[in-house]
Amino acid sequence: MAVIKYTATVIEHFKNPRNVGEIENPDGNATVGSPACGDQVTVSLKVNDNKIEDIKFLSYGCASNIATGSIVTELAKGKTVEEAKKMTWKDAVDELGGLPPVKVHCSVLAVDGLRAAIKDYEEKKLGIKHEKTIDESSILEELKSVIYPKTGKNIIDEKLIKYLKFEDGKVEIEISFDETDVYRQNVLEEIDEHLHEIKEIQEIDVKVVEY
Amino acid sequence: MNKIIYLDYYRTTKISELVTEKMKPYQDDNFYLPVSFTQLGTDIAEAIEDSIVRIKKAFNAPHSEVIFASSGTHANNMVIQGILRDAEPENTSIVTSVIDHPSINNVFDYYKKKGFEVKKIKVDSEGFWNTEMLSENLNEKTRLVSITLVNHTIGTVQRYDELKKIIHEKAPNALIHLDITMAVMTQKIDFEELEADFMTLSGHKIYGPKGIGVVIARKPIKIKPITFGTVVTSPFAPGADNVPGIVGISYAIEQAVLERETYDSKTRKLQRLLMNQIEKNIDKIELNGPADERASDNVNYSFRQIEGESIMMFLDFEGIIVATGSACASSDLKVNYILSAIGRDHEMAHGSLRITLGRETTEEDINRFVEQLIPIVKRLRDQSTIR
User: What ipTM goes with this model?
Assistant: First the structure.
């Protein structure tokens, strides 16, 4: 069994998280994740002159959830909106000196929180509409946010998805797992959660192929 | 750092001094195996025989055979798979509950895939088997009922006599398998009175060594071997005997049984102290498992708005070791199935702590634990998304 432990930087941010709280009258605000999955992050921000002047977060979750919330807000503070949008979960993980593969999804959530808060800012304050056509490639793109806990890489790059079809609001997916894979349920729940957020999808049919 | 406060006795225990001492010769000069017609081999064979007698006596199991396994998990597999080995799936039904240990539950899942009829009885909000559902799901096809006497997460002590009565009435062909792993320290175990066909337990949960478990099987034995090799001590456990483990677990059992009443009344007092302290000082919590019919060394609470791994880690920084049912802290990222089965929502299951007491726990440990817990819960709630 792999030794799973946090780096000293993760522990430091967990013990003394930066930018904890909520901004009053924020320019952008978003909550991502859910208590059902065991982690949730709220990010609120203040933008001035196209720069993120202040940013705060709240967290319901484990140590890595708190630490990634802390590091992402710290990295984003002072950046322009465009710069902040380009931040990836990889940046957060690198800044923390790495995360155990099983915890990488926490960094994805924190960055998703930041992006959602920026999106909220752009919609509310700048009147920008974010409309995306939903098709098979955009669904695959969305599923890149689902991390395979065994390796810390996303399920698309891991080639777990064997088949995907989107037609008339229905997504059909075939995904393969080893019989002994302990992360099967976690991955299926994550897929479900991500696809449920897309309003164009009415029906999800995931088939598991064992090998 | 202060002294470690260990409150995770349900995960594992330290081998007692007595057991260490009794095992030592068999890890040293008496390293041999039970080989007939040699002096050293005969001594070893006698040590194994003495261990078996010690175990039978401790559990009042004269009409039984004692079989050694490599763990509690192996012991459960030996019983369940040993019963089902030659059974016909279409004529065989097996029964357990939704909150039994994975070493029972997952074996049942495997046999379900193989076409056996598998019934998992639901439990109420305190973890007691639903007797109506049990009654409805027993019949002449029922071959096995596996019951865990004390639940390993929430400490529920099953109303075994009630279950036994129903099984005897409705399922004449059923064998009763009782997993007593978490019960040995606190419950009276009398194999004759319990009328079980099999009992299983593990060494390391009762201040014995790791890597050893025991099956106590009523004679005539109703299981078939599931592993094959050189038969030395038992046809059900071929291969070289774990002699130090066998000697060690026999003394661990004897010591646990002899000290049971003293242990139980001590841990009961500490349990009440801990529950009172938590309930007095922290709001938005719920006790998991029953208040009264629970093992005296188990406490399990859920804390709203916060997640267990964070609580566990902050306690760990202070040298306090507990367990959590949070999915984040589990090896498979799944929410604890027992807490889900007793009706806890995700937030409550993730925010749970299992605090288990043992021989070395003191009142001071409890007080220090609660003292540390209060500010940790507060700070995590202050920064939580859930209000």
Answer: 0.89
Three-class secondary structure of residue B187 per DSSP: coil
The encoded tokens of residue B93 equal 């039904």
Distance from the Cα of A135 to chain B's closest Cα (Å) equals: 30
Give pLDDT tens digits for B33-88: 999 889 999 999 999 999 999 999 999 999 999 999 999 999 999 999 999 999 99
User: Which chain B residue lies closest to A180 (C-alpha atoms)?
Assistant: B332
Predicted pLDDT at A2: 67
Kindly name the residue from B35, B240, B313, B328 that is annotated as catalytic: B328
| Radius of gyration of chain A measured on its C-alpha atoms | 18
Q: What would the pLDDT profile of B111-148 be if each residue is shown by its tens digit?
A: 999 999 999 999 999 999 999 999 999 999 999 999 99
Query: Is the Cβ pair A35, B332 closer than 8 Å?
Result: no
Asked if A20's CB is within 8 angstroms of B326's CB, the reply is: no
Cβ pairs bridging A and B (under 8 Å): 73
Question: How would you list the strands of the sheet with A28-34, edge to edge?
Answer: A28-34, A39-48, A51-60
- Alpha-carbon separation of residue B263 from B187, B260, B311 (angstroms): 11, 5, 28
Residue B333 carries which side chain, given as an amino acid letter? L
CB contact at 8 A, B134 and B176: no
- Rounded (10°) CA dihedral A210, B101, B315, B281: 130
- pTM score, two decimals? 0.93
End-to-end CA distance of chain B: 34
- Which of A62, A146, A182, A183 is the best substitution to test chain B (most B C-beta atoms within 10 A)? A62
Cα dist. B88→B114, B116, B293 in Å? Answer: 10, 8, 38
User: Which chain A residues have a beta carbon less than 8 Å from that of B305?
Assistant: 60
Measured at the CA of A19, the angle between CA A18 and CA A24, to 5 degrees, comes to: 165
Q: In terms of Cα–Cα distance, which of B350, B5, B335, B387 is closest to A42?
A: B387
Instruction: Answer whether A185 touches B (CB < 8 Å).
Output: yes
- CA count, 13 A, side-chain hemisphere, A90: 4
Query: Using the beta-carbon criterion (under 8 Å), do B331 and A182 form an inter-chain contact?
Result: yes
Closest listed residue to residue B154, CA positions, set B18, B246, B56, B271:
B271
Q: Which of B307, B333, B385 lies closest to A41 in CB terms?
A: B385
Q: Which residues pair with A30 in a beta bridge?
A: A43
DSSP state of B336: P
Q: Does residue A116 carry a pLDDT above 80?
A: yes
The string of pLDDT tens digits covering residues B216-226 is 999 999 999 99
- Give φ, ψ of A47 to 5 degrees: -115, 135
Ranges of H-type helices in chain A: 8-15, 63-76, 81-85, 89-95, 104-125, 136-143, 184-196
